[in-house]
Amino acid sequence: MTNGWMYFIDFEQFGIKDDGTDATSTTNGFVAAFKRAVELGHSAVYVPEGTYLIDAVGVGDYLPEYGGGLQFPSNIEVILHEKALFKVQPNDSTGYACFNLEGVENVTIRGGHIVGDRHEHNYRQDVNENRRTHEWGFGIQVRGSKNVTIEDVTIEDCTGDNIWVTSKGMMNWPGVYIPSESVTIRKCRTLRGRRNNIAAGASVGLLIDDCDIIEAGGDEIGPQLGIDLEGYADNSIKYQHPYEINVINCRFKDNGRGSMNINVSGKVNAIGNFCDDYIGYGFSTDVTISNNVITNETGVHKKFGIDSIRKSTSETANRVVVTGNVIRGFQTGIAARGKTVTVSNNILEDISSIGIYPYLCDQAVVSSNIIDSDCLHIWVRESKDIKVSDNKGTGAANNVSIKVDASKDVLLSDNEFSGKGGVRVSRSTNVRIVDNDIDLIGSDYGIYFDKQSEVHLRDNLVKNAAFTAIMGYADQYSSYIKGNIIQDCKYMIAMHIDGGSKHMIKDNDITFRRGSNAGYGVYLIGANDSRLHNNDIRVMDGFGLINSFYTIQSTNTKLVGNTYDTGEMKTNDTDFLRYNEKLPK
After folding, report:
1. Which residues in the chain come in under a pLDDT of 50?
2. 551, 559 in Cβ contact below 8 A?
3. Residue 541: enclosing H or E segment and its boundaries?
4. What's the first-to-final CA gap in the chain, in angstroms?
5. DSSP summary character for residue 118
6. What angle (nearest 5°) sits at the alpha carbon of residue 193, between those of residues 288 and 35?
7. Fewest CB atoms less than 10 Å from the CB: which of 34, 104, 166, 190?
8. For residues 337 and 379, what is the distance between their CA atoms, to the nearest angstrom?
């Protein structure tokens, strides 16, 4: 039946049943009707309300997801009534595809409802051992196809992925390789896909826009994700590679093991989505994760808000940008692994363990983030060439704000943090701590470094220290400590440097507000040939110190131009003193 550009199917002519019976006749009838519409030159086919039982299993025993179901021809738009229900006939096959787009182009599917056989399926085990999970049952399969739009379709309860987009053949493998290209999935609702709700293998130019992605998983198989971009490589050779992918304005809820994983993929944007579980970038390259709201409201902190793995051996860098996201309710807010990673302008709240975690990371920038949680705000671990700047952290009542551990070439600059402790550095080299504002609200160090660390401090402000404001065990490296302000120190010692040689401690301004007598300004022990130049030490509440400068347990210290208003300079006989002056209070 025809009406201009629209083709209306004559169900009786093609043997199609709309009462949920006779799967074989109904499936074959739709395939024949679609083909006939194209042959007659119609650009669109309309399918009315009804329940249609579909034989979704292909003819091959090993890969039965190929060649079965409703096989769409090229150059067709199929418009489905919102109550057009396509049910997969229950089966025992390891794979199937209800709607099958294999090697076609210029296909649009609008509307309708697909229901898999997940809860009626026979998961028989007398099959090839690699197929016993039965995880290849698809609601819609797009394989080696081009210019495809899937819009306003509801797909649920498939034994595998509700929507699967992939290639015919594999990259770098004998035989044909045809990726799916220019595929759009828009305004769809995907629910309870047993493996994933939406997944993509080798594809180029995939857009997933404004979809509701709900309750993937619920079984023992994996990955159980809302969206899984599952590239595959081995020994630096790519076989499946999702490329130029955009996931925008989608809503993720209650997916079993995460909202979205972007793995071995390239040029991927995840922008403006609402998620209740993690987004991960795995081994991928050129990924932007931007302006998403990632909020876990279960009351139990999930592991990661944004996760990662590392750089692929086949790539020079990850080149990942994580920016503008709001992340709440996780143990770790952002795990930034890999090479060339930017983490900026994110807001993190209700994080229980680590706010931002550059780990096994090379060439990273962590800047202009806001972290409001009682957690370790930033932990740079086993990383190199890391810049942490212009971040603000509050609420770390039981934690230090920043840790640098087993890393090198790290710059911490222009950060503003409030926490039990400030910065703690261990087993790290060329760590520069510059222009940071550290407000201490507990009894831990303002800045601490161990004897295996090379640290330079300049122009930092450390306020309200209830423990040593600056503490360093400097056995292996000479330290440069210049222009720092220690304001209203409440502890016995403001600055304590232990061991090493040739330290420069210059132009520092130290004030005490202890509420009692005793204490030391700069406490230098076990060091040789260090310089203390132009430092000023004073008390703000009328009480006194024991020694403003204590160097008697060090040797050959040069003290020049220092000023103080309380206590004495307790020096070693080997020290050189000139132009030091005790000022009146």
Report:
1. 1-2
2. yes
3. none
4. 103
5. T
6. 95
7. 104
8. 12
Residue in this structure with the two tokens 């009626």, named with its chain if needed: 120
Question: What does the block give as tokens for 151?
Answer: 């819009």
Calculate the CA 76 to chain-centre distance. 39
Task: Report the distance separating Cα 167 and Cα 149, nearest Å.
Answer: 16
Query: Peptide bond before 64: cis, by omega within 30 degrees of 0?
Result: no
30: Cβ contacts below 8 Å, ≥ 6 apart: 9, 14, 16, 47, 52, 70
- Going through 241-284 in order, the beta strands assigned E by DSSP cover 243-248, 251-253, 260-263, 266-271, 274-275, 279-280
The pair of structure tokens assigned to 393 is 């952290």
How wide is the angle at C-alpha 423 spanned by C-alphas 422 and 427, nearest 5°? 155
Read off the pTM.
0.95
**Comparing C-alpha atoms, which of 164, 276, 287, 286 is closest to residue 230?**
164
CA distance 435 to 482: 11
User: Comparing C-alpha atoms, which of 285, 284, 289 is closest to residue 306?
Assistant: 289
CA distance 218 to 224: 7
The SS3 of residue 34 is: helix
Cα–Cα distance for residue pair 487/469, rounded to 1 Å: 9
DSSP string across 338-352: EEEEEEES-EEEEEE
CA distance 550 to 546: 9
CA 141, CA 165: separation in Å to the nearest integer?
6
C-alpha span between 466 and 469 (Å, rounded): 8
Burial 452-482 (b: 16+ CB within 10 A, else e): ebbbbbbbbbbbbbbbbbbbbbbeebebbbb
Tell me which residue of 334, 321, 314 sits closest to 365, measured CA to CA. 321
Q: What is the pLDDT of residue 458?
A: 98
CA distances 354 to 325, 337, 393, Å, are: 16, 14, 12
Q: Does residue 127 sit in helix, strand or coil? A: coil
Task: Give the tens place of pLDDT for each residue, 76-108.
Answer: 999 999 999 999 999 999 999 999 999 999 999
* Cβ atoms of 93 and 61 closer than 8 Å: no
H or E element, residue 276:
none
Burial of 298 (0-12, 13-18, 19+ CB in 10 A): exposed
What pLDDT is recorded for position 56?
Answer: 97
Structure tokens at 371: 């972290």
Cα dihedral 220, 221, 226, 231 sign:
positive
- Look at residue 116 and give its three-state secondary structure: coil
User: What is the C-alpha to C-alpha distance for residues 115 and 98, in angstroms, rounded to an integer?
Assistant: 9
Q: What is the pLDDT of residue 3?
A: 54
Residue in the block written with tokens 């081009």: 146
In one letter, which amino acid is 268? V
Q: Answer yes or no: are the C-beta atoms of 27 and 59 closer than 8 Å.
A: no
- Per-residue pLDDT at 273: 98
**Predicted pLDDT at 313:** 85
- pLDDT recorded at residue 240: 86
